[in-house]
Amino acid sequence: MQITVAALIVRFMERLGIRTIYGMPGSHILPVYDRLYDSSIRTVLVKHEQGAAFMACGEARATRGITACITTAGPGATNLVTGIANAYADKLPVLIVTGETSTFIFGKGGLQESSGEGGSIDQSDLFRGITRYHRIVERTDYLLQVLRQAARILLAPNAGPVLLSLPYNIQKEPVEENLLDGIRFVTDAPRICNSFAATEEMGRMIREARHPVIVAGHGCFLAGAQGVLQKLGERHAIRVATTLKGKGLIAESDPRALGCLGVTSDGSAYRHIVAHADLLIVLGAGFNERTSYLWDPKLMAGKRVIQVDHDASQLEKVFKADLVIHGDIRAVLEDLLICLSDFPAPPPPAYTAAEIKPHFTAIAHLFERIVERLPEALVFDDNIILAQTYLKASPRHRYFPNSGVSSLGHAIPAAIGARCAVATPAFAILGDGGFQMCCMELMTAVNYRIPLNVVMINNGTLGLIRKNQFQLYRERYIDCDFANPDFALLAQSFGIAHWRVESAADVDALFERADLVGGINLIEVLWDKNVFPAYRSDR
To answer: What are residue 360's phi and psi, to 5 degrees?
Structure first.
């Protein structure tokens, strides 16, 4: 039996386990949309295609499953670029389906053509550097191989975005219904042979250390190593610091937790490592600019270093290690627990967390209440600086920083995507500048009744830019300050609740009166634009 390519693409997405697809229709992709009408896949109409990409990213980060977005040709596809770059940087399994003009008018100047022919936009070149695989499907005779390659990459341990562009006429061509039987829809486990001898050497180095410290990164999340990491810290009293993307791998209220290591943190983990650590155990952390304090040599000075990662490209990328293990982090740690089964380590030295500054009381209190009053929460954060210090993340209060390409306007659509898939209260943290880049996606949440809490810091400025111009450019402020709308009236026009926060008492009132589980809330936190975090960003 034969079906259309459009119908086959929808079945392909169903076989991949895609539950929701975010996008905006256009004439060149309507054959696929028509087949989605009868599909189990939920469609979400966004306000801008960039929002669709960020929603797919948010769902992928919350579920670690394959997600999808869909647009028409030309501007529909080009509007995706920043969101797909974010997915590429974060290695997220996002399938992008775009339309294209019919193949028989390639090169003739078709409306919204992006085939690269006849001087038109070359979509393949546009997405080449931000996708793991991309293809304009110009014929059906190689469609099986294209879909097989797409599935292989989306299901791989080191996944990434995949783009399939489908010309209008190709979407309506017939193909065999059983074509998908030739594709493997199973995730392959990492083909890494862990060396128990290397793990034994790792155990010996820990036994010899007086004050070992683990630096745990996002690779621990990817390996599902949270539980065994917790056991290692508990049994052997090893302090654990995390990277920004690793925040919450262990509960930051745990006495062994040093908190987040990074230039925008309160510096507690940095000070402890520099003053006390004689062994660093780096697990799934890339030691980027933010984590390493611009690759500060003090972090490594006078210490032995062990690095474990399933991604070989990360090993010794920015520092030399005394022991390198290319392996599955969870399996390595499970073997390590066996090696250390008879080793009662002494408690490490205490450390002192930074005091809460008076200016930060309200926002710090807000983060405290999220953890105290909600059994679970998802926090998507564009601001980073405040949550990195004051949010006590955990495996139950999960933190998703705006990493990747660090683009403003990410938090709201990402939280919407996560909330579509996970029945857990979601918070989007962002400034008023970033808010105005994506605030219309609040109507997407309204249209589909997706609960969401937006915490917007209102200081009437692009805070990072103003801070830099204050610290580095002799207060020569340019293009950082702006006027805001009346956010209470804006929320009213959206039909959502508005809350203004200026003090800890306002935060307590918010948690008493607001529906933070099933409602849509705009929480406006008032902030003095001349109050800056202390850290410097000279690069």
So the answer is: -100, 5
**What pLDDT, on a 0 to 100 scale, did the predictor assign at position 359?**
64
- Residue boundaries of the structural domains of the chain: 2-182, 196-339, 358-526
Band of pLDDT at residue 451, cut at 50, 70 and 90: very high
Work out the average pLDDT over 222-227: 89
Q: Are 22 and 415 in contact (CB under 8 A)?
A: no
Closest CA to 475 of 535, 417, 532: 532
> What are the residues whose beta carbons fall under 8 Å from the beta carbon of 142, sequence distance 6 or more?
none
Q: 196-339: which CATH architecture?
A: 3-Layer(aba) Sandwich (3.40)
Write out the H or E segment, with its range, that includes residue 19: none
CATH 3.40.50.880 fits 2-182, yes or no: no
Using the predicted structure, report yes or no on whether residue 351 has a pLDDT greater than 60.
Answer: no
Contact at 8 Å (CB) between 399 and 393?
A: yes
Work out the average pLDDT over 489-495: 98
2-182 and 196-339 in the same fold: yes
Are the beta carbons of 283 and 225 closer than 8 angstroms?
yes
Q: CB neighbours of 501 closer than 8 A, spacing ≥ 6?
A: 362, 366, 507, 510, 523, 524, 525, 526
Question: At what angle are helices 49-63 and 411-421 packed, to 10 degrees?
Answer: 50
Which pTM does this prediction carry? 0.93
CATH of the domain spanning 358-526 = 3.40.50.970
Angle (CA) 353 273 239, round 5°: 70
Q: Over the stretch 272-288, which tens digit does the pLDDT of each residue have? A: 999 999 999 999 998 88
Q: Give the pLDDT band of residue 77 (cuts 50, 70, 90).
A: very high
**Nearest alpha-carbon partner for 522 in 463, 464, 436:** 436
The sheet with strand 94-100 has its strands ordered as 42-45, 20-23, 67-71, 94-100, 162-167, 133-136
Cα–Cα nearest to 384, from 353, 362, 358, 410: 410
* Percent of the chain clearing pLDDT 90 (strictly above): 71
CA dihedral 356, 464, 286, 257 (to 10 degrees): 10
